[in-house]
Amino acid sequence: MDLFKALNLFSQGKYExxxxxxxxxxxxxxxxxxxWVLKMRALTLQVYxxxxxxxxxxxxxxxxxxxxxxxxxxxxTSLKTPGTSSVGQCLRxxxxxxxxxxxxxRPATQxxxxxxxxxxxxxPRTAMTARPIxxxxxxxxxxxxxxxxxxxxxxxIQLSRLNISKYASQPSIAKPLFEYIYxxxxxxxxxxxxxxxxxxxxxxKDWWWKVQLGKCYYSLGLIRDAEQQxxxxxxxxxxxxxxxxxxxxxxxxxxPLTALDxxxxxxxxxxxxxxxxxxxxxxxxxxxxxxxxxKYYKLIAQEDASHTEAIASIGIHHFYNDQPELALRYYRRLxxxxxxxxxxxxxxxxxxxxxxxYDHVISCFERAISLSTDENMADIWYNIxxxxxxxxDITMAEECLKLAIxxxxxxxxxxxxxxxxxxxxxxxxxxxxxxxxxxNIANFIYxxxxxxxxxxxxxxxTIVYYIILSFYIYIYIxxxxxxxxxxxFVGWRSSNKLHCxxxxxxxxx
Length: 509
Known about the structure:
Layout: H1 2-11, H2 15-28, H3 33-46, H4 51-54, H5 59-63, H6 117-121, H7 136-143, H8 164-168, H9 171-185, H10 188-201, H11 207-219, H12 223-236, H13 240-252, H14 256-269, H15 274-286, H16 290-303, H17 308-319, H18 324-336, H19 342-354, H20 361-371, H21 377-391, H22 394-407, H23 412-424, H24 428-441, H25 447-458, H26 462-478, H27 482-486
Helix pairs in contact: 1-2, 2-3, 3-9, 9-10, 10-11, 11-12, 12-13, 13-14, 13-15, 14-15, 15-16, 16-17, 17-18, 18-19, 19-20, 21-22, 22-23, 23-24, 24-25, 25-26
């Protein structure tokens, strides 16, 4: 009766209660393998995460990369330098790691950053850090924090005393045991040992074990070995999981064109699959090819009308292409779907303002402030300051920028705009200080460099003007947009491209 109750709780997703009943049953009969496997499955599913979506490249993987083909790849062939393939005059803001802003916040979006360790270590380890200074292995441990809780009577399985060879020959036990070791205990070494022996016992014919070998190699940083395992598994069985993992391998190797070829081959077996189309949209987004990215996000929206990432990405594309009315439609769709957070109301307020629906602007930003956290409070106040500047309330804009700096003392765009206001107030020294602070915090944005150069030009500091302006032109020509603003080489440059984003993390089941 207790076994039936445990199975019923397991089917209902009540894994903690199921594990408690299994513990009581194992105290009566410690050799019951059925109860043992059921408890393993319950403990595993308590901390199970989708490691395809959850992986992120840490500082060790980015700086100690042994698989780099070229340090200076051709434009449009690398995710490390997305700005080289920029077309048109549309310019999106960038994150703290220097990557163009995407429609959603997702793992592995901080991959495009400086290759120097000095630039990498410059960002402090705070709650608003764009990239924690950790390796991918330690991050995977933090994902399943429930496994860190001590169990009464010690751990469920002593891995050091486990006979790997014995259980590798029993398929009904080997697979649940591998998932328990990999997801619950986070011991990749023991999991790899079990997977190798189980693969040898099945004579290298089981595609499932090949995928698990690839996962272990990927976690250990052996990317090429993981690629071989996923390719071999794909020959035995065409599954979406293997295709997605192979795509992630090529993205990790900074081979986006090969990843796109893999996506196209996967679409031959699984036409219009949303997961594969999403990967293609993300890759084109990383290459800064917004037109192709928008094409695939629209295909995703046709297949799945409730896909939050596609809807948010289409909305941010229309916003930064001066189509706030169209962006407003997509953000309202997210609100109808039940998304309720500060980022969404922030974007709704911006779209309503630029679409001249002024009666909803204040209420949207009030809700955004009430729902805000320490991570997004500075961006919300920064956007409100732009609303105040547009309506001519300089005093309110100055107060909002002060609140943004208080919320995040490394908000470079707020420092830049605060310097512009100080120029209008006649405080030359303070303005120069704010421009230099903004340039030191985020040297990938061009506004502080232009403003510093123009300020030096006004005070007749010719040498400083030439040096700073040269750096500004280098940044802007590198992004392919210098010709647009050199025609209007007069006036202070404030960050009129608003820092607007929607932070919607894809649900991990």
